[in-house]
Fold this sequence. Notes:
alpha/beta; Rossmann fold; 2 domains; 5-stranded parallel beta sheet; 4-stranded parallel beta sheet
Amino acid sequence: MREKIILVIDDDDMNLQIAKMILERKLPCKVIGVDNGVEGIDILKSQRVNLVLLDIMMPDFDGIETLQKIRGDDDIKNVPVMMLTASGEIDDIQKTRLLGVKDYIKKPFLPADLVERVKKKLSEVHSEEILLLGDDEDKLQAMQSVIEDNFPHETLIATSTAAAEKILRESEIKLIIACADMKFIDGLKFLAYLAEDESFDKIPFAVTTADKIVELIDKINLPEVEEKSAVEEPEVVGEVAKLVVTHAEKKKLAKVVPSFIGYELDVNV
Length: 269
């Protein structure tokens, strides 16, 4: 499971440095700090972020305007946001509440309070979990990076059936992806094990390779097509466009992959 990414947007460099130092020392996270909302939105649109800490009082493009832009953009509107601000204006509080933000951390803050509030918020953020199964850890980590860089999923790695069973018992896995070239793990026996346990028999199971995962994600991330082009699309691209016509669907790999099983990935279920 990869570390959490926290984006802090605050025009005060000292506040950025303090928040980064406190959070990275106390939590398994990486903190990205920027001093304006425009740059913050660019980061949100370009990489995975688990939580935003947003100041209100900033010049030119303040926290309310930044939050409005975030909530108005389909690509990033669901990112969790907490306000980190010295503002106590009732009007500001009402505006942020209307935009779905109820969490405030007042400045100046105590380090322990900041850590506790952020930790609690991160624990509330739901992230679908995917199990990657294979006997080559380097390949699994490559697949993990591709998936987590493109989707809001946590990926768990298992290099043995015993490890996979333990993960299944302890986590709510939404999709199992097994490497096609496993030498030391019998995928068919593991699939039979899943079928025999009613707790796991409904979990989608895909067999693929790192290259196929990249190919699939490239297709999922195709621009949306509102109307059919005058030029005939290749059959595969046309099918992809039909299956993933909204951003929400594009960003749910655990729902999209089963749609391609037996077609795009050449796998058995």
